[in-house]
């Protein structure tokens, strides 16, 4: 008896799959944040004690508790493996470790005022909406979602312009040929 085989169903696409375009948008966000915040210029005081990844000078990582009241200065931002932005801070006072790394879900509750500064660096209003103005206040999620949406639209528009230009050049190639269409 022949065994009945069913075709394999294609695997569903991951909604957060990293496409080159998405990677470019994420890198643009990181570049915008770092361009508008001077690394190391501002120190943020940790509100409470917390445990996070610390990076030592020999590039090894360990999970370590960090004390409340310690001051940290932003050094860099990068996109983590899970798609979240990772903010890197160095301690203002010398410690046995070099930097701490916090993802976007942990950093904002720990450093007062930091979320507003990052939202503002993306070009959005972080504060309360003022009466009589059209500018509304944005949360972190709203600001990053809107930034990505606008950036994706800009990239789509640029792609369309390139396609139109290529099609026009191709059409012009044939129109310049006097023998085109004569047969």
Oligomer: single chain
Structural class: alpha+beta
Estimated radius of gyration? 25 Å
Q: Tell me the distance between the termini.
A: 61 Å
Relative helix content: 25-40%
Main β sheet profile: 6 strands, antiparallel
Low-pLDDT stretches: none
Number of helices: 4
Write the H/E string, N to C: HEEEEEEHHH
Number of strands: 6
Plain-language structure description:
The protein has a domain at 20-128 and 136-150. It has a six-stranded antiparallel sheet. 13% of the residues are buried. Helices cover 37% and strands 20% of the residues. Helix 1 packs across helix 4. It has four helices and six strands. The chain is an alpha+beta fold.
Write the layout of secondary structure elements.
Layout: H1 20-36, E1 43-45, E2 50-55, E3 61-66, E4 71-79, E5 85-91, E6 99-103, H2 104-110, H3 114-121, H4 140-175
Antiparallel strand pairs: 1-4, 2-3, 2-6, 4-5, 5-6
Helix pairs in contact: 1-4
Q: In short, what is this structure?
A:
The protein is an alpha+beta fold and 183 residues long. Helices cover 37% and strands 20% of the residues.
